[in-house]
Design a protein that fits this description.
The protein is of the alpha+beta class. The protein is built from three helices and seven strands.
């Protein structure tokens, strides 16, 4: 694997590899429902992640066109399953999770406009943040502390940001007078 946001998987209809080294790999993104809209990634089939995709609902995945074309060629991937390694499982005794594919999105050129096609890892999987276990493999883990929250920082940061955007004069930077 090339990075900590990759996940090993095998698609429905194929036999589980006997060695983890033989698994297919995909770039995994653990995201919230607005991610698709924010990143302007086109939804091509099915649906994207919703608020209802939480720890109490069926485990889902949205895949990109690269994964769909390579592993579900000539098939409709909606409703099919992919099996991924659970984040918290012991590598010597892996636990697999079955995810149902609910949508297909356009491919994002993760490696850059010029270099993307030359990269062997193209497949992309999007999973709901609210269905993810805690762990460093998520890329969505946030800082934690037992300390009391610091007060007074937000107004200072807000004032500094406001001054930077307005040039300190209340007018938006770059706006015509």
């Amino acid at each position: 694997m090339e990075g900590d946001n990759e996940v090993g998987f095998w698609p429905e209809g194929q036999q589980q590899p006997t060695r983890q080294a033989d698994l297919a790999n995909a770039l995994q993104y653990v995201v919230e429902p607005e991610y698709l809209k924010t990143m302007r990634i086109p939804l091509l089939r099915g649906r994207f992640i919703s608020e209802g995709d939480d720890e109490h609902s069926a485990r889902i995945a949205v895949i990109d066109t690269s994964l769909a074309q390579k592993y579900f060629a000539g098939q409709d991937p909606i409703g099919k399953h992919i099996n991924v390694l659970d984040f918290n499982s012991d590598p010597t005794q892996p636990i697999w999770m079955q995810l149902v594919v609910v949508g297909v999105v356009g491919h994002v050129k993760q490696w850059g406009l010029a270099a993307d096609a030359a990269q062997p890892l193209q497949a992309q999987v999007y999973r709901p943040f609210m269905q993810a276990s805690e762990g460093p493999a998520l890329g969505g883990a946030g800082p934690r502390s037992n300390a009391e929250p610091v007060t007074g920082v937000a107004p200072v940061a807000g004032n500094a940001l406001g001054a930077a955007l307005t040039g300190g004069n209340g007018e938006t930077a770059g706006a015509a007078p």
